[in-house]
Write a structure and sequence with these properties.
The protein has about 725 residues and is an all-beta fold. Among the domains are: about 110 residues, no CATH class; about 160 residues, Beta Barrel (Elongation Factor Tu (Ef-tu), domain 3); about 60 residues, no CATH class. It contains 2 helices and 63 strands. The strands form 14 sheets. An 8-stranded antiparallel sheet has the order 20-27-23-24-25-22-21-26. Strand 58 and strand 59 form a beta hairpin.
Length: about 725
């Protein structure tokens, strides 16, 4: 019989999958655990019991209980927690003393219309904030703006594009949704209503979604008022259908000919169409009166030129005509339609990048990015392609690729259903219409969980919801890479639905990513790239975690409890260090039973008493028929914390070693003694044996005779709502 003392000095790699049970050769095995439930991996390698959650507010008054949490930060002094629910937004103000104040809910927009938010899509919303305004996007509704109007009030409005001074031009993006040779004709080019729009093949939507949609005909706007059938509609010409040709002297004559060639860039005009020419001057010996007026297009030479006939012959070949204006109600292929509408869908993704507001991922154009003019967030006029003009880019990477998210980092990172892309920044130059291009990088795809930055990388959930990756630029490869960070803890990744990163949270200098899973748990991730360390732990509660949001070093969670009557109770809470209870609330001592904020008769709650110096666990209490618990006998305590307890547990990997004749993995072996090093800990069990006489204990504790088995493990557990920190352990193995 041989005795070997095997130390575990660190848990820095967190919880690992049982698929690694035979990887005893890996340094990860020696510094990880099979289970870390409700524990946090500290930067030094120790593990500590997670924070409890302090009750902030209940959502029991809402018709539908599901909400999505997000943050709204104006500056370090003005921070808000935002709850987006079914047709409402509930803002909470964070005060400097740590308290959270529930402000008035917003249920209608500035036009008194109900808010479009739906509980079925809560985790698909995409947000971006600039100053006092947060933009909220989803493909099924026009972007909404949540605006802070004072320290304590918010309003919601529909995003609207800038307009020209006369209101006849809307600076919105336009897209071509018709076939290449599909033509449009308008009954009149003059301003006014009751204009007939006719196409040569079916185009118009007859369900009403085309109503109020703007068609751009030769660069001018026509609003569709009603649809007669798929080939005919009635609309209003907002601005005379005219184009001032950008080419100087666009008319060309031939000596002795009545034919005039017109240079009209991307004209879209067809042969036989009637155009109206104005503002022309004499050219080639033909006077202006013979050029201006209604003319029939004789022939289309190419996409930029066509010919007409003058009423007189030229006496010389000449380029001239001045700055000509062309008006037409004739047949044209040069027309397009507003990009965002109920018919074509609205952007799924939104972000700010290099002083532009960027949208992407509509239903009709899922692979297209729309970037505003520089510094003009409501202007999407592409103009002449100047450096400050708006930019429209298509992610032409092969298959049509649905853009789900964008992140502004060193470059504009783009996350799609199938790939990860980016728009590079060249030599510290801003993105412009002439240098903007989309590059494909990695082929994993992204689930509906907002990618978030941590430790210099952007983490995202891979398509399928079974893996998490970090997207980071590699100088060595001169490209972005998407390394898996959940490989050794793949069992914890169960259909993630929400993600937030808390910086310097949990009383450490490290950042943590809290990922809410579809099973109601939270996967807590921390990393240190310099040390090549990544750690996952699993957070559980008596119920389910549903959503999470971080503001600086504060982490908030939305959770569901099911009471004894089978009724779900929903609460917003904050992770707070000093109390090991979930959904806990503070109550001062009273000579009468205490009325609880939420509960149900016969429900069980746990109580910690505070006597002014110490916190003492008082046990479980059953709620009476009046939703009260009786603490009148505890006169030594000034106040109480009432909440739900949770279990914290560490299960080590199988204790292993290498004997003279090779590894002992799978052999029967025993653990004779474990020396546990703990800090400020109370009420600890090791393999179901209670360590006696420890209250706030720091130091080594020895536990003997833990039994035999083929894969002996050490289980450290705490069920009481008290502190626990494990720095390491030494196991004496008998082989």
């Amino acid at each position: 019989m041989q005795k070997v003392r095997i130390p575990q000095n660190s848990f820095q790699y967190g919880e690992i999958s049982d698929n690694t049970v035979m990887r005893t050769d890996s340094p990860i095995y020696a510094a990880s655990a099979q289970s870390l439930e409700n524990m946090i991996v500290l930067p030094e390698g120790a593990v500590k019991k997670r924070h409890g959650t302090k009750f902030i507010d209940t959502a029991s008054s809402y018709t539908n209980k599901e909400i999505h949490l997000t943050s709204f930060v104006f500056d370090d002094n003005e921070e808000y927690l935002i709850a987006i629910g079914d047709a409402f937004i509930a803002p909470f103000r964070l005060l400097s003393d740590g308290t959270v104040v529930n402000l008035n809910d917003v249920t209608v927009d500035t036009q008194s219309n109900p808010l479009p938010f739906d509980k079925d899509y809560l985790h698909e919303y995409n947000t971006a904030q600039y100053g006092d305004v947060m933009f909220i996007c989803h493909p099924l509704f026009a972007p909404r703006m949540l605006t802070r109007t004072s320290l304590t009030t918010f309003e919601v409005s529909v995003f609207s594009f800038d307009e020209s001074f006369d209101g006849k031009d809307t600076f919105q993006p336009y897209s071509v949704f018709h076939y290449t040779n599909q033509t449009l004709q308008v009954s009149s080019f003059s301003e006014g209503s009751n204009r007939t729009l006719t196409v040569n093949t079916p185009y118009f939507d007859t369900t009403g979604k085309h109503n109020n949609v703007v068609i751009r005909y030769g660069g001018n706007e026509i609003r569709i008022d009603s649809v007669t059938n798929t080939m005919n509609a009635t609309g209003t010409v907002i601005k005379e259908l005219s184009t001032r040709l950008t080419v100087t002297n666009p008319l060309r004559t031939r000596d002795g000919s009545t034919t005039i060639e017109i240079t009209h860039i991307n004209h879209g005009i067809t042969a036989g169409s009637t155009i109206n020419i104005s503002d022309a001057v004499a050219v080639g010996g033909i006077n202006a009166s013979s050029i201006n007026g209604n003319k029939v297009v004789i022939a289309v030479l190419d996409e930029n030129t066509y010919t007409i006939g003058a009423s007189a012959s030229a006496n010389e070949s000449e380029d001239g005509g001045g700055f000509v204006k062309i008006s037409s109600n004739g047949t044209t292929t040069n027309w397009d339609e507003q990009s965002f509408s109920a018919l074509r869908g609205y952007p799924a993704a939104v972000t700010f990048h290099e002083n532009r507001l960027c949208f992407a991922g509509t239903i009709a154009e899922p692979d297209t990015i729309f970037m505003s003019q520089l510094g003009e967030f409501f202007n999407y006029d592409v103009g002449d392609g100047d450096d400050t003009d708006a930019i429209i880019l298509v992610a032409a990477t092969g298959d049509v690729n649905e853009i789900r998210y964008m992140r502004s980092n060193r470059d504009l990172q783009i996350f799609t259903l199938s790939d990860e892309l980016y728009i590079p920044t060249y030599l510290n130059q801003s993105i412009t219409p002439t240098n903007a291009q989309i590059r494909k990088q990695t082929p994993f795809g992204t689930e509906f969980v907002l990618p978030t930055s941590i430790d210099g990388a952007t983490i995202f959930v891979e398509r399928g919801g079974r893996a998490v990756r970090e997207y980071i630029y590699s100088d060595a490869e001169d490209a972005y890479i998407a390394t898996g960070i959940s490989t050794v803890a793949s069992h914890l990744i169960v259909d993630p639905v929400d993600l937030a990163v808390v910086h310097s949270g949990f009383n450490t200098q490290e950042s943590y990513a809290a990922m809410v899973m579809g099973n109601g748990d939270i996967g807590l991730f921390s990393s240190n790239r310099a040390e090549k360390r990544a750690a996952w732990t699993n957070l559980t509660t008596q119920g389910s975690f549903l959503s999470v949001a971080a503001i600086g070093d504060r982490l908030f969670v939305y959770s569901k409890l099911t009471n004894e009557s089978g009724i779900d109770e929903y609460t917003i809470c904050e992770f707070v260090d000093d109390i090991g209870l979930d959904n806990y609330a503070y109550y001062a001592y009273s000579s009468n039973p205490i009325s609880l904020m939420i509960s149900d008769p016969n429900d069980t709650w746990n109580v910690i008493g505070f006597d002014g110096t110490n916190k003492v666990y008082l046990g479980e209490f059953i709620v009476d028929s009046n939703i009260k618990i009786d603490l009148t006998a505890y006169t030594d305590y000034t106040h109480f914390y009432v909440g739900k307890k949770f279990t914290s547990k560490v299960v080590t990997n199988a204790i292993d070693t290498v004997a003279a004749n090779g590894p002992v993995t799978g052999d029967v072996r025993g653990i004779s003694t474990v020396v546990l090093n703990i800090k400020d800990s109370t009420s600890v069990k090791v393999n179901n044996r209670t360590i006696n006489n420890i209250t706030g204990f720091t130091g080594n504790k020895e536990v003997r005779l833990l039994g035999y088995g083929r894969n002996p493990q050490v289980t450290i557990e705490q069920v009481d709502p008290m502190p626990l920190q494990i720095n390491g352990l030494i196991s004496e193995l008998i082989t």
